[in-house]
């Protein structure tokens, strides 16, 4: 096992998520609490001030109307009416500051203060109290102080604050719990993926991520990874098969070349033997070059770079050119070639590559369909696809071989004795894939049918 | 004839120089891009053979573009180890007259250089081509041998026309595939030979003098005389 990067908490995406989430929760709850507080406790204390002003004005009017005695009586009545006993504050002082009536036993100086609401500490019937006070100088020089003890409102504020704090803490705890749950689930899924990829990395290409019945986002990603692993496994198999085949296909001509040259270099070798040996060596080297060209062509097609050169092509016309080229060779090998144009589809592609595609199929027919075979190239359209069919009534292929046929270097057992390198259909498959097409190989009973569907360049309107 | 070869691989350069020398083209060899560019513009050459990838900061395409930018239309054949078809297209688009992928047969190179040199020397379009007693009427697309008409399909006429235009010179299979069928791939079967043999049936069968000759290992040649293997 390779060493893996060690997991650190500060790198955890979960920790970052959790912190961000908690911050969001705290800010939003704080904002809600502020709004709530302003609309309850804040509203109440503004209400208090309004009441103080109203009460102060009412008492002053009584004092104007019924004199100091009337006012004292009114205040006495207010203090003994059993209403608001806990909170009311009244005080009437004469011009010298002596108390005429009131429920305060100690008060601050009100010098200069007139008609502005103050918040001061006072002694209300011997009890310390923080109150809002509104002093008012009456026309006879007396000082009337109307006030309200604020401790109940402060208590209310405290209750609200406690409630908000409990809410925030609760929300944070819930957030943490949720995050922990999320993290647990994430870790479980991720570690399943992690274990599978580590095992694949260590060489077990058959390992897949167990998805179970879930259909969540992780299941989708796991599916993608599994599909990627399928591809990797297939590519590795192909690469292995290809290197085996290349090793074999290179070794044979190389050893032939070597023996040819060896032969030419023998002492006393006559000139014509040397020439013949050199010629044979060159033919083998040409064969090797062809092999490399084909491998490169497949690689090039599979890399997809050629798509940039795609242009609209008349498939029937192209097939006409190639059929014309191959007709004589087929006649020479006792076969016949017929071109059937059912419609004239325009496909998007590279002329040389599509020519190569069809050429390879016809080469195969010449090489493997056998003498007397009738080969038909058919151009048609099927839905939104152009269809190119190459069909022969020759010897065909075994069913098992048909499935393998498009693999690189595959050659049916019967054809091993014939010349060739088993790359023809692999090139066709790669070129078809490059053109976003679909390749199918069928048993034509007798013979072989190769169908290639290529997307149309411009979708034709239904008539 | 004088040609310039700009090619950095000494062995390849020597082989090409020797082969073309035997064919009567005296090649001056230049091993890097920078001096290649100087020499290419320094003098009027009959043909320039240019490797695509060169050391010295100036590659084959640069030299080609510089030449064409100066209005120089010397025939240029590009050599390259880059087989990819779009490389080929790029080379031709930059003003190359032909493109050959390494490794190539020296005969293929000779045939192409030959065709290039004559292509530029060729005068205005003729209306009629002849070789021996074979006459091609390019307007009517009809062929006669002596007084006897030779019935050809349009494509066969094109094939014969290309051969006759290059009479006395070897034409390779790849050249025919490109010129007649617009094909740039290497068929795995002897399709060109089969096509030629059919053409031969029409053109040469029943006549004392054969015009279409096979040049073993290289290609084909149309010639009135019998010294085809010369």
Q: Considering DSSP H and I runs of 4 or more, what fraction of the residues of chain A is helical?
A: 40-55%
* Largest sheet data of chain A: 6 strands, antiparallel
The total count of strands of chain A amounts to 13
| Helix-strand string of chain A | HHEEEEEEHHHEHEEHEEHHEE
Determine and state the CATH class of the largest domain in chain B.
Alpha Beta
Oligomeric state of shown chains: heterodimer
Within CATH, the superfamily of the largest domain in chain A carries the name Histidine kinase-like ATPase, C-terminal domain
Taking Cα atoms only, what radius of gyration of chain B do you get, to the nearest Å? 19 Å
Low-confidence stretches of chain A: 459-463
Largest interface: A-B, 38 and 27 residues
Look at the structure and give the mean pLDDT of chain A: 82
- The class by helix and strand makeup of chain A works out as alpha+beta
Uncertain residue segments of chain B: none
The chain-level mean pLDDT of chain B equals: 85
CATH class identity of the largest domain in chain A: Alpha Beta
N-to-C CA distance of chain A: 63 Å
Task: Give the CATH topology of the largest domain in chain B.
Answer: Rossmann fold
- In what range is the share of β-strand residues of chain B? 15-25%
